[in-house]
Amino acid sequence: MKLYSTNNKNLRVSFKDAVFNSMPQDKGLYMPVEIPQLDDEFIEHIDRYSLPEIAYTIASALLKDEIPDADLKALISEAINFEAPAVKLADKTFVLELFHGPSLAFKDFGARFMSRVMAYFLKDGEQLLDVLVATSGDTGGAVALGFLGVPNTRVTILYPEGKVSPIQELQLTTNGQNIRAIEVKGTFDDCQALVKQAFADDELNAKFRLTSANSINISRLIPQTFYYFNTYAQLKKQGLTDVVFSVPSGNFGNIGAGLLAYKLGLPIKQFIAATNVNDTVPRFLETGVYETKASTQTYSNAMDVGAPSNWVRIMDLFDGDVDAIKKVVTAYRFTDDETLEAIKEIDQKLNYVACPHTAIAYLAVEKYRSENPADESAAVFLSTAHACKFPDIFPEDIAAKIEIPEQVTALESKPKQADQLGIDFEGFKNYLLKG
Ligand SMILES: *Cc1c(COP(=O)(O)O)cnc(C)c1O
Protein backbone atom coordinates (compact mmCIF):
# COMPACT_ATOMS: atom_id res chain seq x y z
CA MET A 1 0.00 0.00 0.00
CA LYS A 2 1.39 3.35 -1.04
CA LEU A 3 0.02 6.49 0.53
CA TYR A 4 -0.29 10.11 -0.48
CA SER A 5 -1.05 13.22 1.53
CA THR A 6 -4.52 14.75 1.36
CA ASN A 7 -2.61 17.98 0.67
CA ASN A 8 -0.41 16.49 -2.05
CA LYS A 9 -1.70 13.64 -4.16
CA ASN A 10 1.65 13.29 -5.93
CA LEU A 11 3.42 12.30 -2.75
CA ARG A 12 4.20 8.57 -2.33
CA VAL A 13 5.29 7.04 0.94
CA SER A 14 5.40 3.46 2.17
CA PHE A 15 3.04 2.20 4.83
CA LYS A 16 5.98 1.89 7.23
CA ASP A 17 6.90 5.56 6.77
CA ALA A 18 3.28 6.65 7.18
CA VAL A 19 3.04 4.66 10.40
CA PHE A 20 6.16 6.14 11.96
CA ASN A 21 5.58 9.71 10.75
CA SER A 22 1.85 9.76 11.60
CA MET A 23 1.44 12.97 9.61
CA PRO A 24 2.97 14.25 6.34
CA GLN A 25 5.18 17.36 6.59
CA ASP A 26 2.52 19.34 4.71
CA LYS A 27 0.05 18.73 7.58
CA GLY A 28 -2.34 16.74 5.43
CA LEU A 29 -3.28 13.18 6.35
CA TYR A 30 -2.05 9.98 4.76
CA MET A 31 -4.51 8.11 2.55
CA PRO A 32 -4.06 4.98 0.43
CA VAL A 33 -3.40 5.68 -3.25
CA GLU A 34 -5.52 2.69 -4.18
CA ILE A 35 -8.43 1.18 -2.30
CA PRO A 36 -8.77 -2.45 -3.34
CA GLN A 37 -12.21 -3.99 -3.88
CA LEU A 38 -12.78 -7.07 -1.76
CA ASP A 39 -14.13 -9.80 -3.98
CA ASP A 40 -17.87 -10.43 -4.16
CA GLU A 41 -17.35 -14.03 -3.17
CA PHE A 42 -15.99 -12.91 0.22
CA ILE A 43 -18.89 -10.50 0.87
CA GLU A 44 -21.39 -13.09 -0.34
CA HIS A 45 -20.19 -15.64 2.22
CA ILE A 46 -18.92 -13.29 4.91
CA ASP A 47 -21.24 -14.86 7.49
CA ARG A 48 -19.06 -17.97 7.43
CA TYR A 49 -16.05 -16.14 8.80
CA SER A 50 -14.95 -15.21 12.31
CA LEU A 51 -13.79 -11.71 13.34
CA PRO A 52 -10.06 -12.63 13.08
CA GLU A 53 -10.64 -14.20 9.65
CA ILE A 54 -12.51 -11.15 8.41
CA ALA A 55 -9.85 -8.86 9.86
CA TYR A 56 -7.11 -10.84 8.15
CA THR A 57 -8.86 -10.75 4.76
CA ILE A 58 -9.23 -6.97 4.87
CA ALA A 59 -5.75 -6.29 6.26
CA SER A 60 -4.19 -8.59 3.70
CA ALA A 61 -5.98 -6.85 0.81
CA LEU A 62 -4.45 -3.57 2.00
CA LEU A 63 -1.09 -4.62 3.42
CA LYS A 64 0.02 -7.83 1.74
CA ASP A 65 2.94 -6.07 0.04
CA GLU A 66 4.19 -4.72 3.37
CA ILE A 67 3.59 -7.52 5.86
CA PRO A 68 3.74 -11.20 4.85
CA ASP A 69 0.57 -13.22 5.43
CA ALA A 70 1.78 -15.34 8.34
CA ASP A 71 3.07 -12.28 10.22
CA LEU A 72 -0.14 -10.37 9.52
CA LYS A 73 -2.21 -13.25 10.85
CA ALA A 74 -0.17 -13.44 14.04
CA LEU A 75 -0.30 -9.67 14.47
CA ILE A 76 -4.09 -9.62 14.14
CA SER A 77 -4.70 -12.48 16.49
CA GLU A 78 -2.65 -10.67 19.14
CA ALA A 79 -4.17 -7.24 18.54
CA ILE A 80 -7.84 -8.18 18.13
CA ASN A 81 -8.15 -10.65 20.98
CA PHE A 82 -11.60 -9.61 22.19
CA GLU A 83 -15.13 -9.74 20.82
CA ALA A 84 -17.26 -7.09 19.11
CA PRO A 85 -20.80 -8.45 19.46
CA ALA A 86 -23.81 -6.84 17.78
CA VAL A 87 -26.39 -7.28 20.53
CA LYS A 88 -30.04 -7.36 19.51
CA LEU A 89 -32.12 -4.95 21.60
CA ALA A 90 -35.36 -4.90 19.57
CA ASP A 91 -36.63 -5.96 16.18
CA LYS A 92 -33.99 -4.82 13.65
CA THR A 93 -32.23 -2.74 16.31
CA PHE A 94 -28.73 -3.65 17.45
CA VAL A 95 -26.04 -2.14 19.63
CA LEU A 96 -22.50 -2.89 18.51
CA GLU A 97 -20.44 -3.28 21.69
CA LEU A 98 -16.93 -2.08 20.95
CA PHE A 99 -15.87 -1.87 24.60
CA HIS A 100 -14.66 -5.38 25.35
CA GLY A 101 -10.96 -4.56 25.02
CA PRO A 102 -8.59 -3.64 27.84
CA SER A 103 -9.44 0.08 28.07
CA LEU A 104 -13.19 -0.51 27.65
CA ALA A 105 -13.47 1.69 24.57
CA PHE A 106 -13.36 1.22 20.81
CA LYS A 107 -9.99 2.98 20.64
CA ASP A 108 -8.47 -0.35 21.70
CA PHE A 109 -8.92 -1.62 18.14
CA GLY A 110 -6.77 1.16 16.71
CA ALA A 111 -4.24 1.36 19.52
CA ARG A 112 -3.56 -2.37 19.77
CA PHE A 113 -3.19 -2.79 16.02
CA MET A 114 -0.96 0.29 15.70
CA SER A 115 1.35 -0.83 18.52
CA ARG A 116 1.89 -4.22 16.95
CA VAL A 117 2.41 -2.81 13.48
CA MET A 118 5.05 -0.47 14.90
CA ALA A 119 6.72 -3.32 16.80
CA TYR A 120 6.67 -5.42 13.62
CA PHE A 121 8.52 -2.75 11.65
CA LEU A 122 11.11 -2.28 14.40
CA LYS A 123 13.66 -4.79 13.25
CA ASP A 124 15.75 -6.72 15.74
CA GLY A 125 18.44 -4.56 17.22
CA GLU A 126 16.75 -1.30 16.21
CA GLN A 127 16.51 1.50 18.69
CA LEU A 128 13.72 1.33 21.26
CA LEU A 129 10.61 3.25 20.17
CA ASP A 130 9.62 5.88 22.74
CA VAL A 131 5.95 6.82 22.65
CA LEU A 132 5.05 10.08 24.40
CA VAL A 133 1.36 10.78 25.07
CA ALA A 134 -0.51 13.48 26.90
CA THR A 135 -3.98 12.46 27.91
CA SER A 136 -7.08 13.88 29.47
CA GLY A 137 -8.06 10.31 30.28
CA ASP A 138 -9.29 8.05 27.55
CA THR A 139 -6.91 8.08 24.60
CA GLY A 140 -3.91 7.68 26.88
CA GLY A 141 -5.42 4.59 28.47
CA ALA A 142 -5.99 2.95 25.10
CA VAL A 143 -2.44 3.78 23.96
CA ALA A 144 -0.83 2.65 27.24
CA LEU A 145 -2.77 -0.60 27.31
CA GLY A 146 -2.26 -1.04 23.56
CA PHE A 147 1.53 -0.98 23.95
CA LEU A 148 1.66 -2.88 27.25
CA GLY A 149 4.21 -5.66 26.93
CA VAL A 150 4.93 -4.91 23.24
CA PRO A 151 8.68 -5.58 22.71
CA ASN A 152 11.08 -2.77 21.85
CA THR A 153 8.61 -0.05 22.82
CA ARG A 154 8.21 2.19 25.85
CA VAL A 155 5.31 4.53 26.63
CA THR A 156 5.52 7.67 28.75
CA ILE A 157 2.13 9.01 29.56
CA LEU A 158 1.40 12.42 31.07
CA TYR A 159 -1.91 13.10 32.75
CA PRO A 160 -3.22 16.03 34.80
CA GLU A 161 -3.32 15.39 38.54
CA GLY A 162 -6.85 15.05 39.91
CA LYS A 163 -8.48 15.50 36.51
CA VAL A 164 -8.96 11.94 35.30
CA SER A 165 -11.63 9.57 36.61
CA PRO A 166 -10.69 6.85 39.14
CA ILE A 167 -11.06 4.11 36.52
CA GLN A 168 -8.95 6.05 34.04
CA GLU A 169 -6.27 6.59 36.68
CA LEU A 170 -6.18 2.87 37.40
CA GLN A 171 -5.74 2.15 33.69
CA LEU A 172 -2.92 4.67 33.42
CA THR A 173 -0.96 3.90 36.57
CA THR A 174 -1.12 0.18 37.33
CA ASN A 175 0.67 -1.18 34.27
CA GLY A 176 4.38 -1.27 35.06
CA GLN A 177 6.46 -3.12 32.45
CA ASN A 178 7.12 -0.76 29.51
CA ILE A 179 4.60 1.88 30.61
CA ARG A 180 5.50 4.93 32.75
CA ALA A 181 2.87 7.30 34.04
CA ILE A 182 3.59 10.88 35.04
CA GLU A 183 1.11 12.80 37.15
CA VAL A 184 1.53 16.44 36.18
CA LYS A 185 0.61 19.22 38.59
CA GLY A 186 -1.31 21.11 35.93
CA THR A 187 -3.96 20.77 33.26
CA PHE A 188 -4.27 18.59 30.17
CA ASP A 189 -3.04 21.55 28.11
CA ASP A 190 0.11 21.69 30.26
CA CYS A 191 0.67 17.97 29.61
CA GLN A 192 0.23 18.48 25.90
CA ALA A 193 2.59 21.46 25.87
CA LEU A 194 5.30 19.36 27.57
CA VAL A 195 4.95 16.59 25.02
CA LYS A 196 5.02 19.04 22.10
CA GLN A 197 8.17 20.67 23.46
CA ALA A 198 9.81 17.27 23.82
CA PHE A 199 9.10 16.46 20.16
CA ALA A 200 10.74 19.74 19.16
CA ASP A 201 13.82 19.29 21.37
CA ASP A 202 17.05 18.46 19.47
CA GLU A 203 18.83 16.81 22.36
CA LEU A 204 15.91 14.49 23.09
CA ASN A 205 15.48 13.62 19.42
CA ALA A 206 19.20 12.82 19.13
CA LYS A 207 19.03 10.43 22.05
CA PHE A 208 15.60 8.81 21.61
CA ARG A 209 13.39 7.57 18.79
CA LEU A 210 10.27 9.52 19.69
CA THR A 211 6.76 9.03 18.33
CA SER A 212 3.35 10.37 19.25
CA ALA A 213 1.34 7.32 18.12
CA ASN A 214 -1.50 9.76 17.78
CA SER A 215 -5.03 9.25 16.68
CA ILE A 216 -4.63 10.31 13.05
CA ASN A 217 -2.14 7.50 12.40
CA ILE A 218 -3.27 5.48 9.36
CA SER A 219 -2.60 2.23 11.22
CA ARG A 220 -5.41 3.11 13.63
CA LEU A 221 -7.95 3.53 10.87
CA ILE A 222 -7.49 0.15 9.21
CA PRO A 223 -8.46 -2.08 12.18
CA GLN A 224 -11.58 -0.02 12.71
CA THR A 225 -12.92 -1.25 9.37
CA PHE A 226 -12.87 -4.81 10.73
CA TYR A 227 -15.89 -4.46 12.99
CA TYR A 228 -18.09 -2.93 10.31
CA PHE A 229 -17.55 -6.02 8.15
CA ASN A 230 -17.90 -8.31 11.14
CA THR A 231 -21.20 -6.70 12.14
CA TYR A 232 -22.52 -7.06 8.63
CA ALA A 233 -21.58 -10.75 8.88
CA GLN A 234 -23.42 -11.12 12.19
CA LEU A 235 -26.56 -9.53 10.76
CA LYS A 236 -26.38 -11.49 7.52
CA LYS A 237 -26.47 -14.68 9.60
CA GLN A 238 -29.88 -13.48 10.78
CA GLY A 239 -31.07 -12.78 7.24
CA LEU A 240 -30.57 -9.01 7.51
CA THR A 241 -28.60 -7.47 4.66
CA ASP A 242 -30.01 -3.93 4.54
CA VAL A 243 -28.02 -2.21 7.24
CA VAL A 244 -27.52 1.34 8.50
CA PHE A 245 -24.82 2.26 11.03
CA SER A 246 -25.07 5.11 13.51
CA VAL A 247 -21.67 6.28 14.73
CA PRO A 248 -21.07 8.61 17.69
CA SER A 249 -18.53 11.01 16.23
CA GLY A 250 -15.89 13.44 17.49
CA ASN A 251 -12.77 13.40 15.34
CA PHE A 252 -14.62 11.33 12.71
CA GLY A 253 -12.04 8.54 12.68
CA ASN A 254 -14.56 5.85 13.53
CA ILE A 255 -17.08 6.79 10.87
CA GLY A 256 -14.17 7.44 8.49
CA ALA A 257 -13.22 3.79 8.92
CA GLY A 258 -16.84 2.82 8.23
CA LEU A 259 -16.74 4.77 4.99
CA LEU A 260 -13.42 3.17 4.09
CA ALA A 261 -15.14 -0.20 4.63
CA TYR A 262 -17.89 1.00 2.29
CA LYS A 263 -15.29 1.89 -0.34
CA LEU A 264 -13.68 -1.53 0.11
CA GLY A 265 -17.02 -3.01 -0.94
CA LEU A 266 -19.13 -3.39 2.19
CA PRO A 267 -22.75 -2.88 1.04
CA ILE A 268 -24.08 -0.47 3.67
CA LYS A 269 -27.18 1.60 2.92
CA GLN A 270 -26.48 4.57 5.12
CA PHE A 271 -24.10 5.93 7.74
CA ILE A 272 -25.42 8.28 10.38
CA ALA A 273 -22.90 10.63 11.95
CA ALA A 274 -24.18 11.43 15.45
CA THR A 275 -22.61 14.36 17.27
CA ASN A 276 -23.22 16.38 20.42
CA VAL A 277 -23.47 20.17 20.14
CA ASN A 278 -19.96 20.18 18.69
CA ASP A 279 -21.64 19.98 15.32
CA THR A 280 -19.16 21.19 12.71
CA VAL A 281 -20.00 18.32 10.34
CA PRO A 282 -23.82 18.36 10.65
CA ARG A 283 -23.70 22.13 10.01
CA PHE A 284 -21.45 21.58 7.01
CA LEU A 285 -23.79 19.01 5.46
CA GLU A 286 -26.72 21.39 6.01
CA THR A 287 -25.16 24.63 4.86
CA GLY A 288 -22.17 23.66 2.71
CA VAL A 289 -19.96 25.88 4.87
CA TYR A 290 -17.18 24.16 6.79
CA GLU A 291 -16.61 26.27 9.86
CA THR A 292 -14.69 24.90 12.85
CA LYS A 293 -15.37 26.16 16.36
CA ALA A 294 -13.72 25.98 19.78
CA SER A 295 -15.09 22.87 21.47
CA THR A 296 -17.88 22.96 24.05
CA GLN A 297 -17.81 20.60 27.02
CA THR A 298 -20.61 18.02 27.09
CA TYR A 299 -21.53 14.72 28.79
CA SER A 300 -20.17 12.86 25.78
CA ASN A 301 -16.76 14.43 26.29
CA ALA A 302 -14.81 12.15 23.95
CA MET A 303 -16.80 13.82 21.17
CA ASP A 304 -16.09 17.40 22.24
CA VAL A 305 -14.27 18.27 19.06
CA GLY A 306 -14.81 21.53 17.18
CA ALA A 307 -12.35 20.77 14.36
CA PRO A 308 -12.70 17.07 13.51
CA SER A 309 -9.28 15.98 12.28
CA ASN A 310 -10.41 13.04 10.14
CA TRP A 311 -13.03 14.92 8.12
CA VAL A 312 -10.47 15.62 5.38
CA ARG A 313 -10.08 11.87 5.01
CA ILE A 314 -13.79 11.48 4.35
CA MET A 315 -13.74 14.31 1.82
CA ASP A 316 -10.78 12.58 0.18
CA LEU A 317 -12.58 9.21 0.02
CA PHE A 318 -15.32 10.93 -1.99
CA ASP A 319 -12.97 13.11 -4.09
CA GLY A 320 -14.40 16.22 -2.46
CA ASP A 321 -17.90 15.54 -3.83
CA VAL A 322 -20.21 16.69 -1.03
CA ASP A 323 -23.35 15.49 -2.80
CA ALA A 324 -21.86 12.02 -3.04
CA ILE A 325 -21.12 12.12 0.70
CA LYS A 326 -24.68 13.23 1.45
CA LYS A 327 -26.07 10.20 -0.38
CA VAL A 328 -24.33 7.90 2.11
CA VAL A 329 -23.95 10.05 5.23
CA THR A 330 -26.70 11.66 7.29
CA ALA A 331 -25.64 13.80 10.25
CA TYR A 332 -27.53 14.84 13.39
CA ARG A 333 -26.61 16.70 16.57
CA PHE A 334 -28.04 16.32 20.08
CA THR A 335 -27.84 18.28 23.33
CA ASP A 336 -26.90 17.10 26.82
CA ASP A 337 -30.56 17.18 27.91
CA GLU A 338 -31.49 14.94 25.00
CA THR A 339 -28.58 12.65 25.85
CA LEU A 340 -29.76 12.21 29.43
CA GLU A 341 -33.33 11.57 28.30
CA ALA A 342 -32.05 8.98 25.84
CA ILE A 343 -30.07 7.19 28.56
CA LYS A 344 -33.33 6.88 30.52
CA GLU A 345 -35.32 5.80 27.48
CA ILE A 346 -32.79 3.13 26.48
CA ASP A 347 -32.91 1.80 30.04
CA GLN A 348 -36.72 1.72 30.15
CA LYS A 349 -37.56 0.61 26.62
CA LEU A 350 -34.62 -1.61 25.81
CA ASN A 351 -33.39 -2.56 29.29
CA TYR A 352 -29.87 -1.50 28.39
CA VAL A 353 -27.42 0.92 29.97
CA ALA A 354 -25.72 3.07 27.33
CA CYS A 355 -22.82 5.46 27.89
CA PRO A 356 -23.52 9.07 26.82
CA HIS A 357 -21.71 8.65 23.48
CA THR A 358 -23.71 5.52 22.73
CA ALA A 359 -26.95 7.28 23.71
CA ILE A 360 -26.31 9.92 21.05
CA ALA A 361 -25.90 7.22 18.41
CA TYR A 362 -29.21 5.73 19.56
CA LEU A 363 -30.95 9.11 19.27
CA ALA A 364 -29.64 9.43 15.74
CA VAL A 365 -31.17 6.07 14.78
CA GLU A 366 -34.54 7.19 16.16
CA LYS A 367 -34.35 10.44 14.24
CA TYR A 368 -33.25 8.74 11.03
CA ARG A 369 -36.17 6.32 11.27
CA SER A 370 -38.69 9.08 11.87
CA GLU A 371 -37.37 10.99 8.84
CA ASN A 372 -37.15 7.87 6.63
CA PRO A 373 -40.20 5.75 7.44
CA ALA A 374 -39.86 3.81 4.19
CA ASP A 375 -36.38 2.54 5.08
CA GLU A 376 -36.81 -0.78 6.84
CA SER A 377 -33.10 -1.48 7.22
CA ALA A 378 -31.69 -3.00 10.37
CA ALA A 379 -30.04 -0.25 12.42
CA VAL A 380 -26.84 -0.70 14.36
CA PHE A 381 -25.72 1.98 16.79
CA LEU A 382 -22.13 1.81 17.90
CA SER A 383 -21.34 1.68 21.59
CA THR A 384 -17.91 3.24 21.81
CA ALA A 385 -17.33 2.91 25.56
CA HIS A 386 -18.51 0.99 28.59
CA ALA A 387 -20.94 2.90 30.81
CA CYS A 388 -18.79 2.37 33.91
CA LYS A 389 -16.31 4.92 32.56
CA PHE A 390 -18.78 7.77 33.12
CA PRO A 391 -20.16 7.11 36.61
CA ASP A 392 -21.18 10.72 37.37
CA ILE A 393 -23.66 11.06 34.53
CA PHE A 394 -26.26 8.42 35.34
CA PRO A 395 -29.27 8.77 37.62
CA GLU A 396 -28.72 6.57 40.71
CA ASP A 397 -31.15 3.82 39.75
CA ILE A 398 -29.45 3.35 36.39
CA ALA A 399 -25.93 3.66 37.82
CA ALA A 400 -26.77 0.79 40.17
CA LYS A 401 -27.27 -1.50 37.17
CA ILE A 402 -23.81 -0.94 35.72
CA GLU A 403 -21.57 -3.94 36.19
CA ILE A 404 -17.89 -3.27 36.57
CA PRO A 405 -16.02 -5.47 34.07
CA GLU A 406 -13.17 -7.68 35.22
CA GLN A 407 -10.63 -5.58 33.27
CA VAL A 408 -11.23 -2.92 35.94
CA THR A 409 -11.69 -5.05 39.07
CA ALA A 410 -8.41 -6.81 38.24
CA LEU A 411 -6.61 -3.44 38.45
CA GLU A 412 -8.03 -2.42 41.81
CA SER A 413 -5.65 -4.63 43.76
CA LYS A 414 -2.58 -3.34 41.94
CA PRO A 415 -0.43 -0.53 43.40
CA LYS A 416 -0.49 2.89 41.76
CA GLN A 417 2.82 3.68 40.08
CA ALA A 418 3.20 7.26 38.92
CA ASP A 419 5.99 9.81 39.02
CA GLN A 420 5.07 13.37 39.92
CA LEU A 421 6.28 16.34 37.90
CA GLY A 422 5.55 20.05 37.63
CA ILE A 423 4.78 21.88 34.43
CA ASP A 424 8.32 23.10 33.68
CA PHE A 425 9.91 21.59 30.60
CA GLU A 426 13.39 21.30 32.15
CA GLY A 427 12.02 18.94 34.80
CA PHE A 428 10.35 16.76 32.17
CA LYS A 429 13.43 16.79 29.96
CA ASN A 430 15.69 15.73 32.82
CA TYR A 431 13.27 12.96 33.65
CA LEU A 432 13.43 11.65 30.08
CA LEU A 433 17.21 12.00 29.84
CA LYS A 434 17.66 9.90 32.95
CA GLY A 435 15.95 7.16 30.92
C1 LIG B 1 -12.93 8.82 20.72
C2 LIG B 1 -14.33 8.51 21.10
C3 LIG B 1 -15.43 8.83 20.26
C4 LIG B 1 -15.26 9.60 18.97
O1 LIG B 1 -14.65 8.84 17.99
P1 LIG B 1 -14.01 9.57 16.71
O2 LIG B 1 -13.31 8.49 15.97
O3 LIG B 1 -13.06 10.61 17.26
O4 LIG B 1 -15.13 10.18 15.95
C5 LIG B 1 -16.70 8.45 20.64
N1 LIG B 1 -16.91 7.81 21.81
C6 LIG B 1 -15.89 7.48 22.64
C7 LIG B 1 -16.20 6.80 23.92
C8 LIG B 1 -14.57 7.82 22.32
O5 LIG B 1 -13.59 7.50 23.16
Mean pLDDT: 95
Radius of gyration: 21 Å
Strand content: 15-25%
Shape: globular
Structural class: alpha/beta
Spatially, the strands of the biggest sheet line up as 4-5-13-10-11-12
**How many helices does DSSP assign?**
19
Written overview of the protein:
- There is one protein chain.
- The chain has helices at residues 15-21, 40-44, 51-63, 69-79, 107-121, 138-147, 166-173, 188-200, 202-207, 218-237, 253-264, 280-287, 311-317, 322-328, 336-350, 356-371, 396-399, 406-412, 425-433, and strands spanning 2-5, 8-14, 30-32, 86-90, 93-97, 129-134, 153-160, 179-184, 209-211, 243-248, 270-275, 329-333, 378-383, 419-421.
- The protein is α/β, with parallel strands linked by helices.
- It has a domain at 69-104 and 219-406: Rossmann fold, CATH 3.40.50.
- Helix 11 (253-264) links the parallel strand 10 (243-248) and strand 11 (270-275).
- It is globular, with a radius of gyration of 21 Å.
- It starts with a strand and ends with a helix.
- Pyridoxal-5'-phosphate binds at residues 105, 107, 138, 248-254, 302-303, 357, 384-385.
Structural descriptors:
435 residues, alpha/beta, Rossmann fold, six-stranded mixed β-sheet, five-stranded parallel β-sheet, 19 helices, 14 strands, globular, binds pyridoxal-5'-phosphate
Task: Summarize the helices and strands and which ones pair or pack.
Layout (H helix, E strand, L loop, with lengths): L1 E4 L2 E7 H7 L8 E3 L7 H5 L6 H13 L5 H11 L6 E5 L2 E5 L9 H15 L7 E6 L3 H10 L5 E8 L5 H8 L5 E6 L3 H13 L1 H6 L1 E3 L6 H20 L5 E6 L4 H12 L5 E6 L4 H8 L23 H7 L4 H7 E5 L2 H15 L5 H16 L6 E6 L12 H4 L6 H7 L6 E3 L3 H9 L2
Parallel strand pairs: 5-13, 6-7, 6-9, 7-8, 8-14, 10-11, 10-13, 11-12
Antiparallel strand pairs: 1-2, 1-3, 4-5
Helix pairs in contact: 3-4, 3-10, 4-5, 5-6, 5-10, 6-7, 10-11, 11-13, 15-16
The protein binds pyridoxal-5'-phosphate (PLP).
